[in-house]
Design brief:
five-stranded parallel sheet, Rossmann fold, two-stranded antiparallel ribbon, alpha/beta, 43% helix, 389 residues
């Protein structure tokens, strides 16, 4: 007994054979792309299709030291020293400070900022409009060593390799709105395919027996990233976002498969928010704890500035029906005993709208927001018993 659906299909074959065969060929192509195509070609073949042309150009520029970031053997990349691109200006050490960084100590309290472009201000503000700039005074100096797209693990590695030389009294480490994703990622294009300007390769840590073990990729792999099987095997083993690249191999070439995959990712994202996944994480907490302990050995105190993007700042519309992941993260990290600074509450208390505080990308802060944040950090640091600012 034929089902009504099957009868419909057979009647279409008789009444509209051209439509029937077109749909049949389309269905075959979809099935072939999803189930067969990934086994017909190597990862290198798919990598050449996965990488945007702009990303390929940016990779070549990066390897030739032509970008605003240069390769770094410890952190993956760092700000190019003595660089000037409109608002973007760095000193001889690659810091983006209102006043050039110096190693020699003076009688001032020294505060050093670490983090991503949310901390260094990006290209949308001048050096003297970054959050660190508002801490400079006659009794203190603030240097900003944050670098674009940095995860907190790279901030830790930057502290170990560069910042200890500056003997800071205080570290202010920015914690981005999605701080956990970067901890499980090596190759930026897998985590953020649309980030074509920074197709870089980073180290990461893994937890083994409650200890951090550094997993360091070979930076030379970027010279042959499209065809290097060793590079691809390394990412498959160590990069949690290699799965997205594998899904691209099956779902990236036909319209229905692409649509279903896009829908799946959107649903996965909503489910993640609904169950407040990624609020905290053992690896994140271990990296932060290591930060505090290593800095304490040098007599340095660490504060973690919890940074919201515009969506987290407003938390309106459909998002008001989801758990407030920002506040949950602030609460969780506070319970772990970290010195945290709630930046969202500071911005809310200012009374300004999201459009007044955030740039059009709804991620980076305008000068006004940086001033408010800088003043709030100053107040928080003044509470320290040992350091008066």
């Amino acid at each position: 007994m034929l089902s009504p659906f099957l009868k419909q299909i057979l009647s279409m074959k008789a009444l509209a054979p051209e439509v029937y065969f077109t749909l049949a060929i389309w269905f075959f192509c979809e099935m072939f792309a999803v189930f067969i195509l990934p086994f017909c070609f190597s990862d290198a073949f798919f990598m050449s299709l996965y990488m945007d042309d702009k990303a390929k150009i940016s990779t070549a520029r990066f390897l030739n030291n032509e970008n605003a970031n240069i390769p770094d053997s410890i952190t993956g990349w760092f700000n190019k020293p003595n660089e000037k691109r409109k608002h973007w200006v760095t000193d001889q050490y690659g810091s983006r400070s209102a006043n050039p960084a110096v190693i020699e100590r003076n009688n001032k309290t020294r505060v050093i900022f670490l983090g991503s472009s949310m901390v260094n201000g990006g290209e949308g503000v001048a050096n003297n409009e970054t959050m660190s700039a508002y801490l400079d005074s006659e009794t203190r100096e603030a240097f900003n060593f944050a670098s674009m797209s940095y995860s907190v693990d790279q901030s830790l590695l930057t502290y170990r390799s560069k910042i200890k030389l500056f003997e800071p009294d205080i570290l202010v480490v920015g914690i981005d709105p999605t701080p956990i994703t970067g901890l499980y990622n090596h190759y930026i294009p897998f985590k953020i395919p649309e980030e074509t300007s920074m197709p870089y390769l980073k180290p990461r840590f893994k937890l083994r027996d409650d200890e951090l073990v550094e997993i360091r990729p070979n930076q030379n792999w970027l010279k042959s990233y499209l065809t290097n099987d060793e590079f691809h095997h390394f990412l498959k083993k160590n990069d949690a976002y290699f799965r997205d690249f594998e899904q691209f191999q099956s779902f990236g070439f036909t319209p229905i498969a692409q649509g279903l995959f896009a829908l799946f990712k959107r649903v996965r994202s909503f489910v993640s928010y609904y169950y407040a996944e990624g609020v905290s994480d053992p690896l994140l907490e271990k990296v932060m704890d290591t930060f505090v302990m290593e800095a304490a050995q040098e007599g340095t105190k660490v504060y973690f500035a919890i940074l919201p993007n515009q969506r987290m700042y407003s938390w309106s519309g459909i998002w008001q029906f989801f758990p407030d992941v920002y506040q949950l993260r602030v609460n969780a990290l506070g319970l772990e005993g970290f010195n945290t600074i709630d930046i969202r509450q500071t911005l809310i208390d200012s009374g300004y709208s999201g459009n007044e505080l955030f740039h059009d990308d709804e991620w980076h802060y305008r000068r006004l927001a940086n001033e408010i944040i800088g003043e709030a950090i100053k107040v928080e640091l003044n509470k320290s018993e040992n350091v008066k600012l």
